[in-house]
Amino acid sequence: MINYTDTETEYMIMQYIKNPTVETVEELAEELKKSKKSIIGKLSREGVYLRAIYKSKSGQEPITKVEMVSNIADNLGIEVEDLSGLEKSPKAALKALELATGA
């Protein structure tokens, strides 16, 4: 069973490349009477789908506590293992420490 004809596939690719947004995926799903997951899956298999990049509430790319502790260790010139357990601290405290140590 074929889910998409060659014509539908070409149309989807052209539309998505012109405007690679969630709205385009929703429009394609409605036009082609398919689910959004199906459209995203097909675009992914065709190598054109761009996954949305998550942004934090402040609009920045997220950074993990482990990455923050690693940055703090680098700033202090010590090994990450010397700061073992620090990643369990609140993120706001780690951010303040990271900034204070020269990030």
Record the SSE blueprint.
Elements: H1 6-18, H2 22-32, H3 36-45, H4 65-76, H5 91-100
Helix pairs in contact: 1-2, 2-3, 4-5
Task: Describe the model.
The chain is mainly alpha-helical and 103 residues long. It folds into 2 domains: 6-45; 65-100, no CATH class. The protein is 54% helix and 0% strand. It contains 5 helices and no strands. It has helices spanning 6-18, 22-32, 36-45, 65-76, 91-100. The protein is elongated.
Shape: elongated
**What would you report as the Rg, rounded to the nearest angstrom?**
22 Å
The DSSP helix count reads 5
Low-confidence region ranges: none
Give the integer mean of the pLDDT values: 90
For the largest beta-sheet, the strand count, sense and barrel status come to: none
N-to-C CA distance: 55 Å
Which structural class matches the secondary elements?
Answer: mainly alpha
Q: β content, as a range?
A: under 5%
Query: What count of domains describes the coordinates?
Result: 2
Helix and strand pattern: HHHHH
Percent range of helical residues: 40-55%
Number of strands: 0
Q: What brief labels describe this structure?
A:
103 residues; elongated
